[in-house]
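Read as chain and fold; for instance:
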Amino acid sequence: MSMQYRQLGKSGLKVGALSFGAWVTFGKQIGDPVARSLLHAAYDAGINFFDNAESYADGQAEIVMGAILKKSGWRRSSYMVSSKVFFGGAGDRPNEDGLSRKHMVEACHGALGRLQVDYLDLYYCHRPDPSVPIEESCRAMHDLIVQGKVLYWGTSEWSAAQIEAAHAVCDRLLLHHPVVEQPEYNLFHRRRVEKEYAPLYRSPGLGTTIWSPLASGLLTGKYNKGVPKGARLDTPGMEWLRDAVLKQPGIEARLAVIPKLAAIAKSLGTSLPCLAIAWCLKNPNISTVILGASKVEQLTENLGALDVLARLTPQVMKAIDALSGPVAA
């Protein structure tokens, strides 16, 4: 199936239903030649949004992606690239992280240099920063947009109340509003996207670029019997992620559900990862699902989720929800 394109909330941007992100792979898990193959395979499949952040591999993920984009020969108008600000990169001194005007501006300049682009299509506040007045962060984003360094801004893992507060500030000060939120969303992590954000989709309008559709690999089934050699959670330096995934509350119940979800996927003639990604896309409030892959074969398989959408009938969705809903956060 060819790529579908969706409106990013109430903005004028059209984003592929599937996009590609560099988190925990570029600059860490995979080498540059593999990264190049992945980016080109994604672009050739119609993906037009590449997601990144200042903190991914301490900036190395943006350097790797930027070098590939520079050599690609692709029209800049044919793709979108993002960065995020909050966690900082290699430095750990005061003002080298957070959402102060100083760090936001410097982080934007740093991302532009690493990605080798003149502007960021999307720039996210990677987390809320209670130590900084929200007016300061909103105005910094507005000014970066006015300067042409950023086209649209958004948030990642902000609460509905924090997003509403940002809109109220932008209304009062006549600033550019945030248009997108990047939350975690998958069969096991649902309540924020489905319940908390529900009023925001109508007004003021909210696009979503969701991450971790496979629950950090749980929804591939490969971790049901431990951590296999060469898997992401087996990568040196990823111990923190392995603990976060495999020691989370309720993990036993979720692992028990996975074979049953895999059986539904098999009955539909698809794989569990494709089923999980397609399930995310069935939500009309999801603008794009960010894929992550360390092999071209993985990416190619996950792109097949588009072909599964039509098979997710109301009856199938009900069966999936009956299994996953009770163990979801």
About this structure: The first strand starts at residue 5 and ends at 7. The chain has a mean pLDDT of 94. The two ends are 32 Å apart (CA to CA). The CA atoms of residues 68 and 157 lie 28 Å apart.
